[in-house]
Amino acid sequence: MSSQSYSTYPIKFASFNQDNSGFAISTKDGFKIFDSSTGRLCYERAVGAFNIVEMLYSSSLLAIVGAGEQPSLSPRRLCLFNTTTGNALRELNFLTSILAVRLNKKRLVVVLREKTYIYDANTLAILDTIDNVPNLKGLCAFSPRLDACYLALPASTTKGTVLVYNVMELLSHCEIDAHRAPLAAIVLSSNGMYIATASEQGTIIRVFLVSEATKSYSFRRGTYPSTIYSLSFGPSTQLQDILVATSSSGSVHVFSLGFAINHSRSRRSSSILGSMLPESVNDVLDPAHHHVLHNAFPPGVKSYAVVRKVDRVPDTSSAEFLAIRASISIITYNGYFQEYAFSVTQSESLWSLEREFNLLTVITDNNKSS
């Protein structure tokens, strides 16, 4: 689905920052910056509609792109904006509309339909240009850590092939044939270790080890096709704990990666069916590490979920397992923020809605709006 399909929603764009400590939304009137932990509105600016608002961690720097509804907010102009001073620091202009922006403390990535530009984030000197296949949705993924800083882009318009590019070393790392159908969603873990992908079919989610471009495992989201709106790994700097997906079915899906890694071999050997099937097929058929929250939001409403925090604690029901407790934050484009506490043990999974509020009606505590 194109971004135009969401024009009827009050939220035009939503993004979390690199460590998920804050998030930004844009509406027809302007944009707002929130603290993820408290839900506090930290900054707002009502000057018109924006297609992109990207944060640099919790700093005062934003990368913003207008929606073109007024001449000063062109979708072809990237503005680096300082929220402390309320001034533009630098601007970059392009021949076609900007579809996505990613950044960290060293690199700035600008994705257009058929080109992707890599800049030095401090000097804005252009470092490289990638000629990508037509990328109408601006689909991309980025791992912000400097020691494993990768960018992932679609490498085909007819199947789900991913190009993984090393942004610091400025060279192509690998291509991964992930799906038969074109890609709908991709995400890199923050440590650059794993990449997760979903195709336009939306039934299978696959996870690959970036360093070797090999598939680690597959998960079945569901039997019927669905649009995957977002994918998010847990924040672990070592092995990933969980992967979260949201879809047009209105459900939130959690896949327990840590359990799958540690226990998939013993699970396969103890299963008659598992011993007869290839590993990739067996992983798809095994539902043990898939947990679903149904009807989290209305079906068809675009949503964006991230895993903000994951803790591992002893499982009281088993001496062998560790329980996982996670905080999962969700933005729905009809205007709401939700935070769920999710826990999973060997025997069960539990969901608890901790917070929910309307993003459109929140006002700043100190009236620091511009």
Search tags:
370 residues; four-stranded antiparallel sheet; WD repeat; WD40_repeat_dom_sf; disordered N terminus; 3 helices; WD40/YVTN_repeat-like_dom_sf; repeat; globular; PROPPIN; mainly beta
Plain-language structure description:
By secondary structure, the chain is mainly beta. It is built from three helices and 28 strands. It has helices at 257-269, 272-276, 279-285, and strands at 13-16, 22-26, 31-35, 41-45, 50-55, 61-66, 77-82, 87-93, 100-103, 107-111, 115-120, 126-131, 141-142, 150-154, 160-166, 171-179, 183-188, 194-199, 204-209, 214-220, 228-233, 242-247, 252-256, 290-293, 303-314, 322-332, 336-344, 349-358. Strands 1-2-3-4 form a four-stranded antiparallel beta sheet, with no helix packed on it. The chain is globular, with a radius of gyration of 20 Å. Residues 1-6 and 261-283 have low confidence and may be disordered.
Summary, kept brief:
About 5% of the residues lie in helices and about 50% in strands. It is mostly beta strands and about 375 residues long.
Calculate the mean pLDDT score and round it. 88
Tally of DSSP β-strands: 28
- Classification by helices and strands: mainly beta
Uncertain spans, ≥5 residues at pLDDT below 50? Answer: 1-6, 261-283
